[in-house]
Each structure stands twice: as structure tokens, then as C-alpha cells.
Amino acid sequence: MIEALVRKLSRCAPLSSEEEGVVRSLPAETCEYAKGQVIVPEGAAPAESSVLLAGLAFRYKALPNGTRQIVSLHIPGDFVDLHSFVLRPIDHAIAAAVPSRVAKVPHERIAEIVFRYPRLTEALMWDMALDAATHREWMVGLGRRSAYERIAHLFCELYYRMRMAGLLRQDGFELRLNQVELGDICGLSSVHVNRSLQALRQDGLIRSEKGRLVIPDIARVSAAAGFDPAYLHLIAR
Questions:
Q1: Average per-residue pLDDT in the chain?
Q2: Cβ–Cβ under 8 Å, residues 110 and 49
Q3: How confident is the model over 205-231, as pLDDT tens digits?
Q4: Which residues pair with 57 in a beta bridge?
Q5: Within this chain, do residues 123 and 150 fall inside the same structural domain, yes or no?
Q6: Residue 140 lies inside a defined structural domain of this protein
Q7: What torsion, rounded to 10 degrees, do the Cα atoms 32, 36, 40, 44 define?
Q8: What 3-state DSSP class applies to 104?
């Protein structure tokens, strides 16, 4: 899935063959994580940033009462903590949502890019800015969308991100998040998540097939969610 990262960074600006080669050579170590296992704990100051190669990962903030809020969701081809290159210690934790494989990129390699490859540096900055744009959209959802719209909006976002990463198959993609995890993403109770999922199925907007989410008509779901993919910057500049 390093190729997914190459495609993603190329949306900022077309990369030369040399620059693409630099991205492909970034990882120094690959690690496997079980579902729920912490990849980076809150308060850590890692010496590397992680690219998700397989699975699903999320950032979250844990509250003193034992609850948590998931603040971002990452698919293969995403840096899950690129910001740790400049922001240390990190103020949140990162965990695997499902069994996942991660490539570790030493910060020394990122520093080398900063000094030698200005266009790649811009692409990495763009990637962090895209992460912030997605976070802003999630904040709007938490504050202003109904439970139904929040779930539908999340599914629309994942549809487009999975398609860009080459993980969309026959209008569906693998999604093994349970209702508690969806609630922690959308700021909802399991009851509200369950009701929203049932309503989306009854409206014919989604189907669940053996760990896959199928969206037969993305235009209909987008209309139901008030979804505009502009914040994902899917088209290269």
C-alpha cells in the first residue's frame, strides 16, 4: 500500500520518478498489530512516523471516566502520525481498529526529504493539512448533523477514500467496525448507531456483506448526508 501513499501525495503535485522512488524507499521496519493494540501511546515522543499498510487505525482521546472519542480514522496508504515529526509528545493515542500492518518511517528519513526534496516536503505538508481539513469536517458533523447524517457522512467519506486507495470493489469495501466504535467516532450511543444503521438499510442506502459495507448508489447516500467531497481534495492540483 505504499503505492496508495504515492498516489495520495501525487494529488498535491505530480511527482517525478525520483520523488516516487524516495517515497517507496521510506519504510525501515514493518510491525503487526492486533485489534485494539496501541500503536503509539498518548504522551509518547516517537522517533518515527507510521504508514498504514493493511487494516484500519484510529487516533483517540481517552477521558478520565473510561470513555473515549475517536478523532480520526486511517486506511491503508495513510500516515497515521506524520505530525509527530514536529509535534512531540503527541497529545492522543493511536490504535489498530482491526488487525493491521504498519511501516515505520524514521524521522531522520523525513528530515532528509525536508532538506533535499522541496516538492515532496510540500506534499507531506499537504497531507497534514488534508488531515486537518477532514478533522474540521468531523467537527461540523459532531456539532450540527443528526445521528443518521453522521453515520451516512462517515460512510461517504470512507467510500471516496477507499476508492482513491484502490480498495473499493463492486461499490463496497471492508469495514469491520462494531457499533461501539462507530459511536466513538460519531459521538453517539450504541442505541443511536443501531437505529441509524437500521434506517440506512431500510432506505436502501447501504448493505452489509460479510464484513464489507456496500453502497450501491453513492449519490443517494451523499444527498442523505449532505456530503460534499471537496474537503478530501480528490483531484490533483
A1: 95
A2: yes
A3: 999 988 999 999 999 999 999 999 999
A4: 74, 96
A5: no
A6: no
A7: -140
A8: strand
Cell of 138: 468531523
* CB neighbourhood size of 116 (10 A): 10
DSSP sequence for 30-46? EEEE-TT-EEE-TT---
Residue type at position 212: R
Helix then strand then coil, in percent of the chain rounded to 5, is: 45, 20, 35
Joined together, the cell numbers standing for residue 194 give 443501531
What is the tally of structural domains in the chain? 2
Q: What is the pLDDT of residues 117-175, one digit of tens each?
A: 999 999 999 999 999 999 999 999 999 999 999 999 999 999 999 999 999 999 999 99
Query: What are the residues whose beta carbons fall under 8 Å from the beta carbon of 133, sequence distance 6 or more?
Result: 231, 232, 233
| Model pTM score | 0.95
Decide if 92 contacts 36 (C-beta within 8 A): no
Cα 93 to its chain centre, rounded Å, is: 14
CATH of residue 178's domain is 1.10.10.10
Q: How confident is the model at residue 15 (pLDDT cuts 50, 70, 90)?
A: very high
The residue segments making up the domain with residue 172 are 145-232
In a domain, 138, yes or no: no
